[in-house]
Design goal:
Elements: H1 3-25, H2 32-39, E1 42-47, E2 53-58, E3 66-67, E4 108-113, E5 116-118, E6 121-124, E7 129-136, E8 142-146, E9 156-158, E10 163-169, E11 175-181, E12 192-197
Parallel strand pairs: 4-7, 6-12
Antiparallel strand pairs: 1-2, 2-3, 4-5, 7-10, 8-9, 8-11, 11-12
Length: about 200
């Protein structure tokens, strides 16, 4: 084995061990088995263009999967999704097709109507994967979105009476992040709330 291959193997080993250590003993919110049990999703293996295999959990069809490292990733590249990307772009977290309410029992559930969001706030852990179920509870179209540009890719469009799920990584910075309905006029009538990152 030549010197460059040995160096690459050592670097890969250090990165893998560091990630495993961080996830299981350090900053990981929960371990992968707990995510599997909590989300009750489907496990799959993603093969990146570079040939790397990543074990991941798909919460529901169409959403971005959660890797063993506890990060929501792009299903094709294996890279962490970009919450600041343009909504629906290849780098952005993916929303599900329309589903039945309560399909993912562990998802954070929010209903939006012309009267506002119910509930109008929810808490998440910094850096943790979030499965958010958003429902249009009336006869209006709604678009769930965040005001903070660092979360602009986390957007869910809903037809009247429709439910969808989006899975994304919570910000690593603690604080409050305002969400709203991005349909013109809807924010003004009270369709606004906050995500609290603790």
């Amino acid at each position: 084995m030549n010197k460059s291959k040995i160096i690459i193997l050592v670097i890969v080993a250090v990165v893998v061990l560091g990630a495993v250590g961080y996830f299981f003993w350090g900053g990981g919110i929960e371990n992968y088995q707990q995510y599997q049990q909590k989300m009750a999703g489907t496990e799959k293996t993603i093969t990146t263009p570079e040939g790397e295999e990543i074990k991941a959990l798909v919460v529901t069809t169409g959403t971005s999967p959660i890797s063993e490292a506890g990060k929501v990733i792009n299903e094709i590249t294996g890279k962490v999704v970009n919450n600041a990307a343009q909504p629906a772009s290849p780098e952005a977290p993916k929303q599900s097709d329309p589903i039945g309410q309560g399909t993912v029992p562990s998802a954070i559930k929010i209903t939006v109507t012309s009267g506002g969001f119910t509930p109008n706030s929810f808490e998440v852990n910094a850096g943790a994967p979030v499965a958010l179920e958003v429902t249009s509870g009336d006869s209006f179209t709604h678009v769930f979105a965040f005001k903070d540009p660092s979360l602009q890719a986390v957007a869910v469009g809903l037809a009247p009476g429709e439910t969808r799920i989006i899975v994304f990584n919570a910000p690593t910075s603690r604080g409050e992040y305002t969400f709203f309905c991005n349909v013109p006029g809807h924010e003004g009538r009270g369709e606004v709330g906050k995500m609290i990152v603790k």
